[in-house]
Queue: 3 jobs
Job 1
Amino acid sequence: MASESAFRTVPFASRTDETAPLSPWRVTAVEALPGFRLRVAFADGLAGIVDISRLVHSARAGVFAALADPSLFAQVWLDYGAVAWPGELDLAPDAMHRAIQELGEWAL
């Protein structure tokens, strides 16, 4: 398992604090974990795991099938408080926050 120091806060690049969303479900940190999982933290202090292993390997994966490539999956970053990947792929942070708040994990 990755050390806590590997859990990185990804800055908003050139985006200023004035343009960063202030919603409590804004993702403030993301770390790619083995098995197509992510560790995420939110602006309100909530943290948890997102598991997309079933999604990326399913027939219903659609555009997310590209994330079955571990090297692409590892390129995860934050885009205005949402988890994102190259190719304009992203996950809904509000749904992610709600599931983690209720279940401790969001499995897609």
Job 2
Amino acid sequence: MKKNLIIAFSLLLTAIQFSVAQQRQRLNEGWEFVKNDLGGIWEAVRPYKPGTPETLPLWEKVTLPHSFNATDAVQPGVNYYQGPGWYRTMLTIDNPYQDGRILLHFEGAGQKTEVYIHTQKVGEHVGGYDEWVVDITDAVAAFGSQQVPHAQKVYPGLCTHATGGNPGAVGRSALSASGDQPH
């Protein structure tokens, strides 16, 4: 009985440690998307007022996961869009850990993705729809605000059955605040 109580207490402490060591916020809502290339990152993150020329191109509101080839890539005899697409959102940064890290966790994006915090490129991933993480701590600190513009440029790959027919896509994302110190 005493041994079982010690094991249960140890498991409880472990669970508490993991819940305290990292906070995670899903980022599936509040995204905007444009299905073309931009002149540069500034066009994705610049401030604008509705109705002004800076609102062009027109961004479509989307939730993640999202595929910009969901329909055209699977229609026989149709030339599907093979250019890049851009996603953007505003991140609210609330890291309760002094000197902790801020991570963007992607559950998939394909086939090549560039990640930006404001105008600073913070990471790039090449490959299919596997999970990957980008540390954005330094870029957030350089921006100097808790409201941080974030953008991603996604380049689709070839449409094959292996890619599920959706080569231009972004999977679910999450923002993590970690008590871990930089290595």
Job 3
Amino acid sequence: MSEDLYKTLGVNKKSSKADIKKQYIKKAKILHPDNGKTGSKEKFQALIYAKEILSDPLKRKLYNDGNLGDGTRFSRAKSVLINNFMKLIGQDPGVVDKDIFLILSKYLIDAVNKMENIIENLEKENEKILKIRSRIKNKEGEDNIFIKALDSNMDGNDIKIEQVKEEIMTFKLAQNILKEYKYLYPKASINKYMILGDFAVSNYKGTTTW
């Protein structure tokens, strides 16, 4: 974590939601940009962010466990869960009697595995490009059009690798959020789910960028 949100607010891990609100109001008066003496736009924004995270029980737990990431990633992770949750409901007529969150969890794990394979393949592609690049020569002082093309390709791969890595972090955060929920379904349907659960996962087409 880049900053201690508890320190930003001036509270500790045992502080209640009411304590956090009280301390936020106190510090907000001091740090508000309109306060010419002690105001600071940057510190005020950090204070707002700290209050947002520590006032929300789920975000606070994820932060304490080191699994929150930044606010943007948290929003994306929630979107991943909601989009796939609604898509699963629409795709499977019998989903009401299955453990929906277990199916979602398996999908998220499979998606991360696929994205890790994408990164591995892109890294292998870059290794191949480097070997080819080292064997291409031309007259000294002249532009090497083939090396330029290879460098451009490798730059594109590097960008995609970073994008997929961020997507993996988002999906892993979604997994952590999902752990806070459970789906209550009839006990009589457990055997049915055990038979159809894997089938549901293998036929469920989730939502992912890659």
